[in-house]
Specification:
Layout (H helix, E strand, L loop, with lengths): L7 H24 L1 H14 L6 H12 L5 H21 L15 E4 L1 H4 L7 E5 L7 H9 L3 E5 L5 H13 L4 E4 L4 H9 L3 E5 L8 E5 L2 E5 L2 H9 L3 E10 L2 E7 L10 H22 L14 H9 L1
Parallel strand pairs: 1-9, 2-5, 2-8, 3-4, 3-5
Antiparallel strand pairs: 6-7, 8-9
Length: 306
Amino acid sequence: MSAPRLTLTQKLRYGAEAAAFLAFMGLFRLLGVDAASALGGFIGRTLFARTRVSQRARDNLVLAFPEKSVAEREAILRAMWDNLGRTVAEYAHLDKFDIAGPNARIRIENAADAEPMRGKAVLILSGHFANWEIMPITAARFGLDGGIVYRPPNNPYVDRYIARARAKKGYAEQISKHQGTRRIFTLLRGGKAILLLADQKTNEGIPAPFFGRDAMTTPAPAALALKLKVPIIFASNRRLGGARFAVTVHPPLAFIPSGDDDADMRAMTAEINKRLEEMVRADPGQWLWIHRRWPTARDVTTSKRL
């Protein structure tokens, strides 16, 4: 399935956006990884934090943590924006991150639990924690072969830049979530690993509990695991300070199918959300709270009309 052709208006708009993005990437590259990360964090918490999308994050935090004070939720919000600004700046330096060498910036926690994954079909699930690009870099440098499933940016020129930056680091195969179902099946059946961020809202998904309320969630990981009988492993990423990270390998999902395919898919999807919620609760400032994760009043009204 080929990408749709761009109109002249789209080309001009995306071209202008990409020019600004590349200018910032050039600046961040000149600064070096630590200074770029620090500048990105400053921009995130002082400029990005003032945009309207901050209100969405505040609304999400109220839903997730009604017991926390306003000051506690604002501290989480500030940490999130600092982290997001750093993550954007670090795209200019993906080649600087590694698990070994004189200036290794990534450490693996529970690495022994990752050893059994080598050379086997496995689904590795995570969310948008810290700099989420660090996790597939870690998998590639650790020796896991397979593919990552990602949602391409709307801007195709920015998408190409990021894809090239990933490829330089020896990333696993990059598979667009909109076009890659057949390829995912092929890789898993061939004994490869698939890395997937499963924490975003999916309109085509199913409702599953997340922080005490239903959130539209992709059933794809559960459907793949049940159909192909492959294990699900969880991983999370934590910013240790500046541009240094710890990737933690978590225990696999323990699930015994009942034989009812639909019920099993829904139950496993709920278990996946439960595990992701546990990882978010462990350090909420490291997660990306700006997703439209839960239905809004507008969503409910629209669905009733349909």
